[in-house]
Amino acid sequence: MIDLGAHVRAGDGVWWGQGGAEPEPLVNALLDQVDEIGPVRAFCGLTWNERLSDNLPDSLTVVSYGGLGELRRLSRHGLLDVVPCHYSAIPRMFEQGRLPGDVGLVQVSPPDSEGLVSLGIGVEYAADALPHTRTVIAEINHRMPRTNGSSRLPLSAFAATIESDRPLREAPVRGSDEVERAIAENVAGLVEDGDTVQLGVGSLPSAVLERLVDRVDLGFHSGMITDGVMTLIEKGVITGTRKEIDRGLVVTGAALGSTALYERLHELPVEFRPASYTHAPAVLSQLRSLVSINSALEVDLLGQVGAEVRRGVHIGAVGGQVDFSRAASLTGARSIIALRSESAGRSAVVTALHGGVVTTARVDVDAVVTEHGVAVLTGCTVTERALRLIQVAAPRHREGLERALADQEM
Q: Which residues contact 224 (CB under 8 A, 6 or more apart)?
C-alpha cells in the first residue's frame, strides 16, 4: 500500500475524481491512514465507494457539491458538508483556493507511446483542479481507456503512482417503469430533429434516450454520457452535423455507464473536455439548438424547481442543471424539467418546496413534464403558470392545489 503520509500533511485539502474515475485504491488508502496523518478536508463528487457511506475516520471531513451516490448516506448521518454551487463555478473555486486543493488523487490510463496518460472517463473538474494542486498522485489503471479532447499528462506530473488492473465501476442500472416511459414520451415531443440535447443519468433519462430513436441528426453536449448515448450514435440518431460548434462530436466531461461503453469510447466521436468548457456560459450560448432535459424532486406553482434536498437530506445537487437550463432557455431552444407527478404518495407539484431550497429559478424553465402531460410556461403569467402546472399534477392532488392557489390569490 502506498504511504500517503509522505505526500499528505495534517491540515491539507485533498480532492479526487468521481464516478467510475474515482481512484478507489488511493481513496481507501487515505481512509486507512488519515487518522495517523492528521485532520484532512476532502472534496469529491459522485461516489459509489461504499466506504464513504458512513463511519468515516474522525480526522476526515468530506465536502461535495451535492449528495450524490453514497454521499446521500453521509448526509443522512450529518457527515457531509455541501457547498451549493453551479457546476460551472467549480473550476474557479479550485483556482481561488476555495475548495480543498493541496493534494489531488486521480485515476489515469496507461502511458501511450509518448509516455503520456489520459484522465480517461473523468476529465470534468479534475482537469480544472490539476493546475492549482500542489501534489498529484495517480492510480494508473490498465483498464482505463485513453480518451480524446483534453491534454494528456506526463508521468512527471505525479509525485507518486500506483498501478492497478481493475474493472472500472459501472453505473447502477434500474430499468424504467411505466410512469417513466410515459414521461419520456411527453419529453420526446419537445425534442426536434437537429436539436442539441443535454441530459443526465438515471432510469428516466435512459427512457428519454430510448424514445428519441426516431429523431434525425441530434447533437449531444452534456456533463456526462451513458450507454443510451452510445446506442443513439450507433443507430445514426446522434450525428452532431447540425451543431453550431463542435460539429460531428459528442462533447462531455465524463462517462457513467457500463464496461461496454468504456471499451467502445475509442471508436466513438466523443471528446472529453473539462468543466470549464462543458458548462461555460460562453460555450453554451453558442448552442442555439440546445435543449436541456433535467430531473427534479418537486416543482412549486411558480415553476421553481427543487432538486437537492428531501426531508433535510441532500440527495441531489445543483450540478449543471442551472448552467444548462439557463442557457437553453435564454440563448438555446428550450429548457425542460421532467419528474414523476408523485413520490411516496405526495404530490411533486407543490404550493411551496418542501425541501426549502430553490435549485432552478422559475424564469429558467420553459416546460415542466410529468406522466400526465406538458406544462409550457414560457410567456405565461404567474396565474397561468400555476394553472398549467396543476393540470400535469397527479389527478388526486389537483383539487387541493386549486384550493391553495385560490387562497394565495396569485
A: 19, 200, 201, 252, 253, 254, 255, 256
Half-sphere exposure in the Cβ direction for 293 (13 Å, CA): 33
CA distance 54 to 51: 7
Q: Where are the beta strands (DSSP E) in 99-253?
A: 103-108, 116-117, 135-141, 153-154, 160-164, 196-199, 219-220, 224-225, 250-252
According to CATH, the topology of domain 178-408 is Glutaconate Coenzyme A-transferase (3.40.1080)
pTM: 0.95
CATH 3.40.1080.20 in the chain, residue ranges = 178-408
DSSP 8-class letter at 134: S
Q: What is the dihedral of CA 395, 311, 20, 58, to 10 degrees?
A: -170
Residues 6+ apart with CB under 8 A from 99: 13, 15, 43, 63, 83, 90, 93, 129
pLDDT digits (tens, 9 = 90+) for 367-384: 999 999 999 999 999 999
Give the integer Cα–Cα distance in Å for 403 and 150. 54
DSSP letter (8 states) at residue 77: T
Q: Distance between CA 294 and CA 316 in Å, rounded?
A: 12
Give me the chain's average pLDDT, please.
Answer: 96
Start and end residues for every CATH 3.40.1080.10 domain found in the chain: 4-164
Report the chain's C-alpha Rg in angstroms: 21
Distance CA 259, CA 144 (A): 10
Q: Name the fold adopted by 4-164.
A: Glutaconate Coenzyme A-transferase (3.40.1080)
- Contact yes or no for 111/141 (Cβ under 8 A): no
